[in-house]
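[step 3/7] inverse_fold.run input=structure_tokens len=343
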């Protein structure tokens, strides 16, 4: 398609999007069904455009790709498990002569960009390209090996006593635990907690995950387990969660597929069912459990400890009535004094 030769910063038409999905992500879709299905592809293309613009900042001096075809050609090598050095050599052959002094930077900048577009994982440390804390170092072998190594870290925390109750969801993280949500486009940041800012990162590209359940670039089970965590945090059957998320999604261009992932059954809510996100779930759940209400709204919403909740509000009611009756008595006393001097 001629449109694939367009500059990466050009506005994407629907035909180009469909062709990119077919070649980059192995998704066969035609323009007539692009918007009619259950998946939100435009959320991904917002990420795609943003990454391309950031990789080609400063006049494209840090990456050699210029067109969508350049990206797709490199992606083909990455998906065929060609090692990083060999891909660099292939790119180098196409660079103009005489070769630029920053030849390696141009080649590796393009390779890292394509790796990010393929996996939605922060590969490399290109300036302005990715925010977040989790980065995957890809230095020599095939990208698949680096992704596997990063996500297959051994479990370090024991969580025999951790229970993932229904109250533990994304909406309650804020309204009960005071934990802010940071929506991330970096899968490596999913469920990571920033202790300083009291924020948890949540990877919200549910449509992307749904399309990559069988992708060989990820360790087996990683994508399915990530979807399970979204079911845990965004139960589609919870009315409060649905209303809350709809307000957020309209302001932040979130993937609405997030609410259509489903919900977890009771037997699926056990912490031992999670391997890749096991430790991060334990940390987040412990922070949530230890959070004490500090505002009136949190006191009202936090009903995890029923006795404490009833005690607080009975005491608050007694205090309010005491103040009210005290004010009434003061007013009555004032009126009596006034009438005594002004019969």
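[step 3/7] decode complete -> sequence:
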């Amino acid at each position: 398609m001629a449109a694939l030769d367009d500059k990466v910063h050009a506005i994407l038409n629907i035909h180009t999007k469909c062709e990119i999905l077919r070649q980059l992500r192995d998704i066969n879709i035609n323009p007539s069904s692009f918007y009619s299905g259950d998946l939100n592809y435009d959320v991904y293309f917002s990420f795609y455009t943003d990454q391309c613009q950031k990789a080609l900042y400063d006049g494209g001096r840090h990456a050699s790709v210029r067109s969508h075809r350049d990206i797709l050609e490199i992606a083909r090598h990455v998906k065929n498990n060609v090692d990083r050095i060999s891909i660099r050599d292939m790119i180098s052959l196409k660079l103009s002569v005489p070769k630029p002094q920053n030849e390696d930077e141009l080649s590796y900048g393009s390779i890292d960009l394509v790796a990010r577009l393929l996996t939605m994982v922060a590969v490399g440390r290109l300036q302005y390209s990715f925010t977040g804390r989790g980065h995957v170092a890809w230095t020599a072998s095939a990208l698949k090996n680096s992704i596997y190594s990063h996500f297959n870290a051994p479990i370090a925390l024991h969580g025999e006593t951790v229970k993932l109750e229904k109250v533990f969801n994304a909406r309650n993280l804020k309204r009960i635990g005071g934990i802010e949500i940071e929506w991330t486009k970096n899968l490596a940041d999913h469920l990571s907690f920033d202790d300083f800012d009291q924020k948890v990162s949540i990877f919200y590209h549910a449509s992307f995950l749904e399309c990559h359940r069988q992708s060989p670039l990820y360790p087996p089970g990683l994508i399915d387990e990530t979807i399970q965590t979204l079911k845990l945090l965004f139960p589609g059957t919870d009315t409060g969660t649905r209303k809350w998320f709809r307000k957020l999604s309209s302001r932040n261009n979130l993937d609405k597929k997030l609410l259509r992932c489903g919900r977890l059954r009771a037997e699926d809510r056990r912490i031992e069912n999670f391997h890749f996100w096991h430790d991060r779930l334990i940390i987040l759940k412990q922070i949530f459990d230890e959070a004490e209400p500090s505002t009136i709204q949190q006191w009202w919403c936090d009903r995890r400890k029923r006795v404490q909740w009833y005690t607080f509000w009975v005491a608050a009611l007694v205090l309010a009535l005491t103040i009210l009756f005290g004010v009434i008595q003061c007013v009555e006393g004032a009126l009596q004094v006034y009438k005594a001097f002004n019969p």
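[step 4/7] annotate
The beta strands are 180-184, 193-194, 199-203.
The chain has a mean pLDDT of 85.
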